Amino acid sequence: MVDLYPPTDPYEVGYLDAGDGNRVYYEQIGNPEGKPALSVHGGPGAGTPQRPPRAWDPERYRVVRFDQRNCGRSTPHASDPATDMSLNTTQHLIDDMEQLRKHLGIEQWLLFGASWGATLVLAYAQQHPERVSEMVIPAVTMTRRTETDWLYRGAGRFHPEAWDRFRDGVPEDERDGDLLAAYARLMENPDRAIREKAALGWLAWEDAVISNEPNGVPGMYSDREVDAQIAFVRICAHFFSKGAWLEEDQLLRNAHKLAGIPAVLVHGRHDMGSPVQTAWELAKVWPDARLHIIEDSGHAGSDALGATVRAAIEDFKHR
Q1: What is the pLDDT of residues 98-117, one digit of tens each?
Q2: Which residue of 6, 12, 125, 213 has the fewest CB atoms within a 10 Å radius of its CB?
Q3: How far is CA 184 from the centre of its chain?
Q4: CB atoms < 10 A from the CB of 79, how many?
């Protein structure tokens, strides 16, 4: 097992002016002369963890972290109903990443992204493969409509009572239709009480999905302050109801653009929200990627999954 490194505070924090009213928070940690790596958070809308990263050798890596648009410390915040969500799409986030790379004077960087972060780093790498040195991707997703349909409808077979509550969180005449679009509309309501109630209903379902995993943590999604809850759900519903503005199977179909980029994919066998099939399909069409399926893990991870991820990060620091 690869030991964790001591906590390291950022040596720089700042805001990237995206040029359209959005300001993207970023921080740099480790060695300014080290190997550049970009850590991309999930959600979408979860924000960068407040705790310092400990999987990265601070003597060898220059780790960049950022809060994606409208969440975390980036402004404007999605908890404000006046925030224009039309300026937050997958392409906007890719462009922010590329603008940040240029702003920091980085030629190439390792990409790390889990869950939604996996989708985003795959989309970025397929547009800018020459800027990517390696990739480490736990909890592989491609945000296909088939994947989100499983997460927000199909998985209800395992938790029917919780799913009924999730479905019943939208108006009655929308319960047999597109639940994600219905929640997206609720999250745009100017009445904060309506937005708070919808956010709690969404997060309760997310908590239920992960609850039976080997290392599922109660309240894993709902355990955040109210503004962060609203922002998270508003952004998730906004992205997922639009298929993340990606064609179905786009990231799988364009995997050939990743040729020559070494990658490690790590996925829990018991990931209820993001079944391992997605990781398996991607690994089959990406010869430079090595897939590790972790038998005691789900979406919440495990010691074995964490050790596998850290081993990959350790291996890549020498390239």
Answers
A1: 999 999 999 999 999 999 99
A2: 6
A3: 18
A4: 21
Tell me whether residue 271 is one of the annotated catalytic residues: yes
The DSSP bridge pattern shows strands 23-30 and 12-17 to be antiparallel
Q: Which residues of 137-149 are buried (b: 16+ CB within 10 A; e: fewer)?
A: bbbbbbbbbebbe
Q: Which amino acid is at 270?
A: H
132-138 and 109-113: which strand pairing?
Answer: parallel
Token pair listed for 140: 């592989």
CA distance 27 to 32: 12
pLDDT in tens, 21-31: 999 999 999 99
Check 271, 274, 297, 302 and give the catalytic one. 271
Phi, psi of 25 (to 5 degrees): -70, 140
Tokens representing residue 178 in the block: 């597109």
Q: Please name the residues in contact with 6: beta carbons below 8 A apart, sequence gap of 6 or more.
A: 54, 58
The strand pairing partners of 291, in sequence order, are: 265
Q: Which residue has the tokens 């519903």?
A: 237
For 301, the token pair is 């991870």
| Annotated active-site residue in 77, 238, 267, 299 | 299
Active site includes 270? no
- What's the pTM value of the predicted model, to 2 decimals? 0.97
- Which two structure tokens, joined as six digits, stand for 259? 């040729």
Q: Strand pairing of 61-66 and 23-30?
A: antiparallel
The residue with tokens 């109903």 is 81
Q: Measured between alpha carbons, how far is 61 from 87 in angstroms, rounded to an integer?
A: 32
Q: Nearest 5°: CA angle at 261, between 307 and 284?
A: 75
DSSP 158: T
Known catalytic residue at 164: no
Among the listed residues 115, 274, 297, 302, the single catalytic one is 115
